[in-house]
Amino acid sequence: MTTTIPAIPAATTDGRGGGPIRRIIAGALITGAASAALLTLVVFAGAREHVITGSALLGFAVGWVVLAVLSARMTDQPQRWAWVPAAGLAAAGLGLLVLAPGDRALTAAGWVWPPVLLALAVWMGSRVRRRLAAGRGRWLLYPVVALTALAALGGAVETVGLAADQRSHAMPGETYDVGGYRLHLTCTGSGSPTVVLQSGLGATSASWAQIVPAVAGTTRVCAYDRAGQGWSEDGPHEQDGIAAATDLHTLLDRAGENGPYVLVGHSIGGDHAIPYAARYPEQVAGMVLLDATDPYRATGADAASAEAPSAVALLPSVARLGIGRLLPTSFWSTLPEPAAAQVKAFSSSPRGQRNTRDEYATIPALLFQAQTLTTLGSTPLVVLTAAGHESDAVWNAGQEQMAALSTNSSHRSADAPHAGLLDEERGAAASVQAIDDVVRAVRTGQGADDARAPR
After folding, report:
1. What is the rounded distance in angstroms from the CA atom of residue 72 to the CA atom of residue 78?
2. Does residue 394 surpass a pLDDT of 50?
């Protein structure tokens, strides 16, 4: 005798409360978000923009696949439309990973993907309303549809904004070929020695807007953008201190500027100045380090295994959505106009955020390379430390060690924060004073403190 047990449907009905479909929707959304986070923050942590964006799209695609499959197998309300966003996101993600587009290609694509994504969001909203009964989880999907539409609108705003920025912010100075790519240099004033300004992390030549006019009244002064910054083109590879020093040496030569120079570096710009001095000592007449990052904390192991922090690597992809444009100009810079707008235009852009990501990745190597300079002899040197480090013994020890590079040095404190050494009137005045003192010391042969001129 054979007993037949009737098959029990897995969950072909949702019941009056719609529990299974709601749980499937919630699980699909969580799966998509978790997959995107896993891929961008763990599997491809610190990767370049196209990898981060592509892997995020693949992660979100997984969530839509889960919704399409489980809703069809376990409920009486199959959401087969979810295959469309799943396929679209997966195709876009794989395309980015395989084609590995650069900044120009990604920017050009910004004229295409926002309207396509917006159309997809509208279509998804209509599918949710038609295919999912009221009370069965619409409220979970509508916010996702809205965020998709906002991402499309933000992408469109960013693309239009990038085009407008190119027209609005005319480049001062000139660009020069340094070996297959061009770097930007702008110089003003006259006299010797020429002062060369080196910017900090993700900054540009525009960041020196309060320093340049004041120094130009005393001597010639030049500000430039490292590869990937401001008006300079991208380099063929990430730049450590040696590569940047080589570029700067070539740039000054091609521009017809004459050394030896007074090198001025703010933040990691100071750490870029140090390898230059080690590599081209005959080209350095003096140096000013404006709250330079402590190079003595880095080790060879740090340099060998360096990569950008996971969160920093997300910034270029996020910038494609126009997030940076929502922040006020004062968030990016407190410089007077038009410099503040120039700083914001670069810093908030995907290219600016990518430059920040790239420079973060090279900081350990840069700091380790800066340690190779053990002495400047009697070259005039001023180390200016920003306010706020009073209780940081490690930071202050590093500042003292940098000041000890020269027997003709002065270590001073400024009543201004780190960024304020360039942005704020009081901090900029302290920075200009330090530069003027080194210029006078070079001209007169006096000590860095003895040459101090009243302002």
Report:
1. 4
2. yes
Mean pLDDT computed over 85-111? 96
Say if residues 57 and 93 touch (Cβ distance below 8 Å).
yes
Query: How many alpha carbons lie under 13 Å from residue 408 in its C-beta half-sphere?
Result: 20
CA dihedral 194, 200, 202, 208 (to 10 degrees): -50
Q: Which helix (H) or strand (E) holds 223?
A: strand 221-224
In eight-state DSSP terms, residue 419 is T
CB neighbours of 443 closer than 8 A, spacing ≥ 6? 192, 193
Write the CB contacts of 239 (distance below 8 Å, at least 6 apart in sequence).
226, 227, 228, 247, 358, 359, 362
Output DSSP code: residue 445.
-
> How does 272-310 read in b/e, with b if 16+ C-beta sit within 10 Å?
bbbbbbbbbeebbbbbbbbbbbbbeebeeeebeebebeb
CATH code for the structural domain at 175-333+362-444? 3.40.50.1820
380 vs 236 pLDDT, higher one: 380
Nearest alpha carbon to residue 189 among 160, 146, 215, 220: 220
Q: Between the CA atoms of 325, 330, 332 and 336, what dihedral angle is there, to the nearest 10 degrees?
A: 110
Count of CB atoms within 10 A of residue 190's CB?
11
Two tokens, residue 262: 């007074």
Per domain, the residue ranges of the chain are: 19-167, 175-333+362-444
pTM confidence score: 0.86
CA distances from 211 to 191, 226, 338, 409, 427 (A): 16, 18, 14, 21, 10
pLDDT tens for each residue of 36-92: 999 999 999 999 999 999 999 999 999 999 999 999 999 989 999 999 999 999 999
Tell me: pLDDT of 236 over 90: no
